[in-house]
């Protein structure tokens, strides 16, 4: 009667590799989420500093609101004449 043995070192290495891979994926996701949050916070603060509500641009249009645009991507400043200006960073 013969017994079958499993190579335990291989199973252990696979388990360790899977754990390290999952940890790296989680770390990358945390960095992406934190970076996106930092860009949103700092970018909106910068936009409000550059174009405060009620201020006028060089053409005499008054800032009436803010927003976010997908196309073109960036922070948007809206003016009283209905126009807007979008930039990724102000």
Give me a quick take on this structure.
The chain is an alpha+beta fold and 90 residues long.
- H/E order of the elements? HEEE
> Would you report the number of β strands?
3
Rounded mean pLDDT is 87
Helix content estimate? 40-55%
Structure description:
This protein is an alpha+beta fold and 90 residues long. Helices cover 48% and strands 19% of the residues. The protein has a 3-stranded antiparallel beta sheet, covered by helices on one side. A hairpin with a 4-residue loop joins strand 1 (63-69) and strand 2 (74-79). The longest helix is centred in the N-terminal third of the chain and has 43 residues, at 8-50.
Itemize the secondary structure elements and their pairings.
Layout: H1 8-50, E1 63-69, E2 74-79, E3 84-87
Attribute tags:
alpha+beta; 90 residues; 1 helix; 48% helix
């Amino acid at each position: 009667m013969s017994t079958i043995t499993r190579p335990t070192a291989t199973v252990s290495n696979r388990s360790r590799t899977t754990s390290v891979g999952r940890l790296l994926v989680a770390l990358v996701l945390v960095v992406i989420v934190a970076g996106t949050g930092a860009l949103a916070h700092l970018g909106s603060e910068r936009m409000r500093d550059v174009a405060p509500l009620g201020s006028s641009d060089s053409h005499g249009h008054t800032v009436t609101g803010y927003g976010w645009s997908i196309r073109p991507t960036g922070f948007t400043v809206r003016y009283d004449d209905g126009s807007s200006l979008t930039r990724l960073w102000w």
